[in-house]
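In this supplementary section we document a worked example of the pipeline. Step one takes a protein sequence of length 244 as its only input; no multiple sequence alignment statistics are reported here. Step two produces a three-dimensional model, which step three serialises into structure tokens for compact storage. The input and output of this example are shown verbatim.
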Amino acid sequence: MRSSARVVASRTAMRHGLLPRAREHSDSASVAVWNSPAGGALAGGDWCDVLLMSDRFVGLTIGDVSGHGARVAGTMGIMRAAVLRAMRKSYVPSDVLSIANGVAVERCGGVVVTAIVATFDRKSHTLTFANAGHPPPLLLTRGEQRFLQMSPANIPLGIFSAYRAEDYEVTLVDDALAVFYTDGITEHARDPIAGELELVEAARYVHGRPHVDAAGAIALHVLARGRGDDDAAAIVLRTLPAEG
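The serialised model returned by step three reads:
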């Protein structure tokens, strides 16, 4: 992977109680990922990945296969691979989800899979994403925060063979955070409203500390009082502050 996009993965930070730190800089944006299967398993039902698609475009995906155990981890592997293959063919998030839905229907019948696919344009700072029934991304800047709960809400993958999600586009200002997460983050205490408030608080905490690993630090902050029994994952895309 070229140095034009930074990716920091921290699977063990929470286990050791450490505050992970970002390890290098990029020219316009950074990306941090964090994935922690429940119960110390090697793999769970959540995935999160970053793909350098070109010098200009960075792809992001996060997803959640319902349930626990080895069978769910196997389904996650199938869906993750399908999404990544599709992302190498198309920069359009809705196209990727349509391809992945075909795989879910054909090979993973009866399993609910939620996912987000996003493409970040490093030149224009636009983020284009499509959401298949997944918790909405959080967009946070110095002065505001909002969940990108778009309408209409698209259904999860694997339910209907004919599937087409909507593509949405937002422009990220300098020094903004776009936070993608699974419900193991916001529903660890089985209270999604409180969980969303905790996520905003954690993102605000991280926003003021630009040199930490954003995804790992958010997870540590939110889950400090209890992990819950679900897999959890997060991706944080951060645009860098303007110089001067």
